[in-house]
Structures are given as C-alpha cells and as structure tokens.
Amino acid sequence: MAAGTEVEIEVSKLKDHPSNPVYTTSLDSESFSTDAEDQQDYVVKYLEKELGSDLKSLKNVGDLLEKLREENNVLEGQVLTVSSSVPPKVSEALSTAADAGCSLVDLLQREKYGTCTLDDYSVLKYLQGAQPWMDNLGQMLNQVDTIGRHMKYLRCLQRIEELSAAVQQCLMTSSVWEAIRAVDSMAVLDTGLNQSGCFHLQDFLQETLHFWHKIIKDRLASDFEKVLTQLQWPIVTPPTQSLTPTANHQEINSQLELLVTQLLALQTSYPSGLFTELHQQPVSSVAPPSKGPPLCLPIQIMLLPLSRRFRYHFYGNRQTNSLSKPEWYLTQVLMWMSNSSTFMEEKIQPILERAGVTTSARVELCRGLLSLVQEKVASDASRLLYDDMLFCHLVEEVLQFEKELRCNQSYPAVLPGLLHLLLEDAILQKWLTVEKKMAVEKMDSMLSAEGAWSSQYKDISDMDELKAPDCAETFMTLLQVITERYRTLPCPSAQLKFLGLQRELVDDFRIRLTQVMKEESRCPLGVRYCAILNAVNYIYTILGDWGDNVFFLQLQQSAVSLGEEMLLGGLGVMDVGRLASLEGSLFEGLLALLDRLKGDMMGRLLEWTMREIAEKAKPYCQDRWLSLPSQYDLSTMSLSSSACPMMLCVRDRLLNLHQVLSLSLFQLAWQGLAERLDNFLYQDVILSNHFSDGGAAQLQFDMTRNLFPLFGHYCKRPENFFKHVKEACIILSLNLGSAILLRNLLKESEEEMRDWAGAGDLSPQSALHELGVYCLASCDVLILLNLRAWINTKKENV
Which InterPro entries does the record associate with it (predicted)? Predict the structure, then answer.
C-alpha cells in the first residue's frame, strides 16, 4: 500500500514537469452557451456519452484525452488564423471576457460590503445553485488529469522495459553498437527526468542504466584486455627495437580500433557511470579532487594492470613500500610513462583522432598514473610530519619528480601534478619550519668553518671581482636553492611565505655579520674585517639584482594585490604605491640596512687608514717650506725626504685594499681615501705653513709627480680627486706679477662689492677660472696668496 502511495505521489509530480503536455478539453465553440446551467449539462452529457457509467470504460480516458487534445490544437490553429484574418472578432471576444471577469470581481466585492442590488442577488443565487455542478465537473477533470499522469508514468516504465529488453537482445546477438545506442537512449530519458521529482522512477532507471552499462563495459573490457595482451601491454620495461609484426597484426589493430571506439561511445552515453579498479581505493583527504574531465574509458582499462602492480609493490608490508625511499615509486611511475609513450602515440592516439577525441592519449595515461602517485604522496606526507629528515627527502623527491614530469614528459602546466599536495596547511607549515631550521643550522656551520672568510676563487682573477668570502657565497647559494624549490609552486601566497622566510634569513645573517664585525673592529685593516665588508657588499649586490628579476617582480605584484601583511607591514600608502608601480622592490628595507652597514664599515676602514697616513705625514707637515731654495737653484727636483714615509704608506694601503676588497668596494675606498687625503694635505700642510718660491715648487712637485700618480693606476685623471691641493698648488706657484694682480683684484672686489663685467675688466671668478681654479672660493684664494712669503715681503717693502 505504501509503494502504491509513493507511485501516486510521483505520478502527481508529473503534472508540473516541463515535458508534461497541457491537458485541455477542446469542445466545439458553438456548444458553449452563455447560460452556466447549459454549460454544465453539456459537459455532463458529453462525459456520460463518452465514458458511460461503467468504471472499466475509464481505460478509454487516454483516447479521450488524445481526441480532446487534437480538437484543442485545431481550435488554437483557428484562433491564430482568425487573429490574422478577422482581428475584430477575436479582439471583441477577448474584450468581452475581460469585462466579464471585471464584473464578477466587482459583484463579489459588492456582496462582501452589502451594496448589491436586486439583480445582483439574483445572479449570485444563480451562481450558488450552479456551484455543485461546477464542483463535480472539477473533480471529474482532476480524475482525467490523474489518469493521464498515471498513463505517462506507465509509459516511462514501459519505455525503460523496452530499452532494457533491447539491450539484452542486442547483447545476445553480439550487436554491441545497438546495445550502446539503447543505453544512450536510457541516458537521454534519465536526463529528461532530472527535474520531474520522480525520484523512485529515476533511481530505477539509473540502476537499470548502470546495470547494463557495467555488463557492456565488462564485456568490452575483457575483449580489450585480450587484444592489449597480444600487443604486449603493459610495457613495464624500456621498449626494444621494433619487432617483426605478427601475421595477424592487421586483424589485431582492427579489433583494437573497434573496441576503443566502442568504449568511447559507451563512455559518451553514460559518462557518470565510470567505475574502475583504478579508483576503488580510498583517496586521502589531503589530495584535492583532480581537475579536468574523467579519464577516457579505454585509458582507464589500460591503467588497470599498472595500478595493480603499483599497489602490489608500494602498499602493505612489501620491502619496496618504504617511507625513506619515495624515489622508488616516483621513478617507477616516470619509467612507465616514458616506456609507454611510443605505444600510446602510435597505437592509441590515431584511433582517438579518428573518433573525434581531442585529448592526448599519452597525457591521459600520465594523468591516470599521476592519480596513483598523488594518493601515495598524500598518504606518506601526513605520516612524515614528525620526521624532519624523511620529510625533507620526500619534498626533494616530489620537486624533482615534478620537474621531470613537466620537462621530460611534457605534461601540460594547466593540469595539476604533485605540488598542490605540498600546499596543504600542515604540510606547508612543516616545510617552512624545516626550511628555516636547516638554514639556521647551515649558517652556524658556514660562519664557524675554517675557510669561512676566504674566497674560493682568490686564485682566479677573472672570477673574483666581488671577492665574496665562502660563507657569504654559501649563504646566497642557500637562498637561491630555496628559491628554486618554491619557484614552481602554483600558489602565489605560498611563494610569498617562502619569500618572507628568505628575508628573515637575510636579516639574521646581517646581524651575525655585524656581531663578527664588532669583534674585528679593533683592526679594520685586517683581512677578516675586509672579508666581512666584501660579504655585506656581495649580499647587497645579489639582492639588488633579485629586485629586478622577473620572478621577484611578479611576487611583488602578488604581494600588493594580496595585501600580504608580513611583507608590506609597516609600509605607508606611498611605499605600497611605489611597489605597485615597480619603482621599488621587496628587498628595499634589507638593502637599506646592508647599505648602512657597508657605509659604517667603509668609514671605519678609511678612518684607520687616514690615521696611519697622518702619522706618517707628521714630518712632512712640519717641513721648512719657507726656507726651501728656489727650483732654479737646483739641478733636478726630487721627492721631499719627509714625504717618503707618507707616500710609501699611501702606496702600500692602496695595494692592500686593492687586493682584499672587491672592485666596487675598492672604487669607493680609493675615492674616499683621495677625498680625505686632499682635505688633510690642504688643512695640515698647506694652510698650516708659509711657502717660499722653492717651497711652493717643491709642494707642487711632490703632489703632481708623486702623490697623484699613485692614484693614476685606478683612474685617468687622479688630480680631479685632489681639487683643493691641485688648485692650492696653482695659486702658490703663480709668478709674482700674476699673484699681485690677482690679490689686488680679489681685495678690490671685497672692498668695493661691485660687478666686474665692464669692458676690458675681469670678474674675480673669471680670473680664477682662467687660472684653472674652480673649487676654491675667493676668500680661500686670498688666504693662500697671503701664505706666500715673497708677496708678504713685497707688501712690506711697499
């Protein structure tokens, strides 16, 4: 009784199904009287005439419905025809119906509020008397509708039985194509019932569909496996040279193509009914569902023997199932992919193309094998979260597998490999933790190593421009290896987490270098101190290059778009805007800290160098410049004996710095040293003494012929880095007349404070420029002129 009730419920649902025809009773238009009683009498007589009082005559309801439906269609056609030929009549009928409806509504409203007239009450009384007839007619029409839905439900069941019988008959006569077409018809019927709400009917249809689909698939799979066996599938060893084809190879190829085509057609008829041993094992919750359509049915069947081999060797208590050896099953799957590629491209791919399938047979096989590996890796990774060494080994092997899969097997980038398994929260966090732990341990060992501060390329001049110590180079190699590991991850947010780890490691290494530098700061001219400076400069240079690298620029854009707090925290709106426009880089903060450390170390180094040079220059500063004989009294001029210690010290320090500092740092060092030495000589030698003619000439000889050439090895015009000394020598070496004129010009300029732009007159600046003096101001030139003893003597004589 309950089953009957469910059927009744489902039959009732057919009424609202989109495919259910609208049941209408189309009677002759002249039979409809304006009198309601005549209408009821006509309908009752019509039904008694057609059906009678015998309940068994209800079986004719279907024929009656068909007849009424046909009459209804005829009337609809007439209405359409009349609407085009006699529009006023149809329009008038519609208008009358609308007016009647409005009148009825108005009548009901007046009855409700007690404002009906006498005629209105008579109409209402008439309607009330006709109500039982209308109710009876409605019930009878509902019964007709119910019977129609029962008939449709039964026709669906009959159709299912007919298709099921057809499939059975086709299989008995080995008409596989006809059986597949019958299954396809069932699938179409199943699709049509999706919105009907007849769940029991649809379940019955789906069970029948799956039943026959499995029988056909099993029969085709059995035949397909036999053909594959004759073709020596699966190919688990590297294929040898092409063998002589067997006598029946054409027949085998024909059978292969027929079976593959039939399996593809079967899959197309019922794509949701694919159940193979390949997916019978439970999949780990870590592995997300694979993207893309399901594997084509022939490939699934071809994967079955490989799947059984994989599960036999790499599951259970087999020795080959070792957590410490993930490379065993990863390498095995890559070998299967490589060994089977020729067979797939030569045997299966042409059949797929002739069948109109656009997928690659080789890629489909790789997808199937990859699903086995994904399940295995997801299972192993969750078991290795508490073993750092084995976990690291698994990650390394997965990354190597992914690389070979994409490069050697040409697996499409749009399809997932294994990397998405490493992005699960627990696994990714473990990876970051282990990466940091091992990097810190590596930093400790590299800084404490015996050759940490020596360059491994020190004997190869062409490769040692940066003179990076071994610890710095090892550290940057470590960062580069980390980059290569996470570069291929398919998730930008995960990549940014690794970038944040790299920035943290760089800052940690900078702090360690600072600590070592402070220990060596007592001897800034030592080899280790300079090696630390080289290390800072090397890291600064590499990070600067990374800031312009396309990969890191893409990460920079991802950081801005994702709003990564870890990387953008503390930055203002302007700074974030600069990053978005690629004007800055994610390493700017680290570069600023490294540049400041480099500047501090370079300043300390030059300070100690100048302290040593100044100590050696004390005799030169105290030389008797005023009493030196004129150059005309000497046969040849030579370097002042008091300047020799200073010159030797400058030479030795330049050579030493050139040997221990990188090229870019040495450029900064000698230029900084030249600037400091220029100020020292100007302040402590020139401005602190008075010069005779011979003293000025000796000073100029010492500078231009001895000091400047020491820096000439590193630039073409070293005198440009000693502007104060060079211009002071020019002023001190002027002949007497020019010196007096220049002094008068400068004095008058100071006293009168007027312009010297008149014709024939020279301004002080123009006069100095003519002499080659651009750096010194007029007041400084006057001071230098007053240091000349013979000008002072001339002034006293005047």
Answer: EXOC6PINT-1/Sec15/Tip20_C_dom2, RINT1_Tip20
- The pair of three-digit structure tokens given for residue 344, joined into one six-digit string: 């797939």
The three-point CA angle 341-342-344 to 5° equals 65
Q: What Cα–Cα distance (Å) separates residue 50 from each residue in 58, 60, 416?
A: 10, 9, 68
In Å, what is the CA distance from 599 to each residue of 143, 148, 571, 665, 668? 99, 95, 24, 10, 10
Angle at 613 between CA 610 and CA 619, to 5 degrees: 135
Query: 623-787 is classed in which CATH architecture?
Result: Up-down Bundle (1.20)
Is the predicted pLDDT of residue 794 greater than 60, yes or no? no
53: three-class secondary structure by DSSP: coil
For the record, the structure tokens of 232 come out as 């020596």
Q: Taking the CB of residue 788, how many other CB atoms lie within 10 A of it?
A: 25
pLDDT digits (tens, 9 = 90+) for 70-94: 877 776 665 555 444 445 655 676 6
Could you give the CA distance from residue 498 to residue 479 in angstroms, rounded to a whole number? 10
Q: Is 788 helix (H, G, I), strand (E, B) or coil?
A: strand
CATH of 430-597, one of 1.20.1330, 3.40.50, 1.10.3470, 1.10.357: 1.10.357
* Rounded-to-integer distance, Cα 281 and Cα 378, Å: 13
Please report, for the chain, the start and end positions of each structural domain, with discontinuous segments joined by +: 279-423, 430-597, 623-787
Please tell me the number of Cα atoms within 13 Å of 229 on its side-chain side: 8
> The tokens of 606 are what?
């030059």
Q: What is the DSSP letter of 686?
A: I
Helix or strand run (H / E) with residue 41: helix 36-51
| Cβ neighbours of residue 646 closer than 8 Å, sequence gap 6 or more | 613, 616, 617, 620
CA distance 277 to 761: 107
What is the SS3 assignment for 742?
A: helix
Q: Across-strand partners of 788?
A: 691
Distance, first Cα to last Cα, the chain = 145
CA distance 221 to 599: 76
Contact 576, 556 (CB under 8 A): no
d(CA 327, CA 335): 12
For residue 698, give every residue at least 6 positions away whose Cβ sits within 8 Å of its Cβ, in sequence order, or none: 625, 628, 631, 637, 640
Write the burial class of residue 90 (CB in 10 Å: 0-12 exposed, 13-18 middle, 19+ buried). middle
> Residue 139 is encoded by which pair of tokens?
């019930």
C-alpha 3, offset from chain centre:
56
Q: How far is CA 639 from CA 349, 599, 604, 730, in A?
A: 89, 35, 30, 18
Name the H helices within 409-491: 425-448, 470-486
Residues 6+ apart with CB under 8 A from 319: none
Q: Shortest CA distance to 617 belongs to which of 716, 707, 497?
A: 707
The model's pTM is 0.75
In contact, 660 and 638? CB cutoff 8 Å: no
Q: Tell me the two tokens of residue 758.
A: 């008149």
Long-range contacts of 781-786 (CB under 8 A, 24+ apart): 781/731, 781/742, 781/746, 782/743, 782/746, 782/747, 782/750, 783/687, 784/686, 784/728, 784/731, 784/732, 785/731, 785/739, 785/742, 785/743, 785/746
In the predicted structure, residue 302 carries a pLDDT above the cut 90? yes
- One DSSP character per residue, 229-275 reads HHTT-S--S---SPPPPPTTHHHHHHHHHHHHHHHHHHHHH-GGG--
pLDDT, the chain, mean: 82
With beta carbons less than 8 A apart as the criterion, state whether 286 and 382 touch.
yes
Radius of gyration for the alpha carbons in the chain, expressed in angstroms and rounded: 50
Distances (CA, A) of 81 to 22, 68, 226: 21, 20, 66
Tell me the C-alpha distance between 190 and 269, whole Å. 11
The string of pLDDT tens digits covering residues 229-261 is 999 999 988 877 554 566 678 899 999 999 999
**Residue 372: both structure tokens together:** 């086995």
Say which DSSP state 691 is in: B
* 10 phi, psi to nearest 5 deg: -70, -35
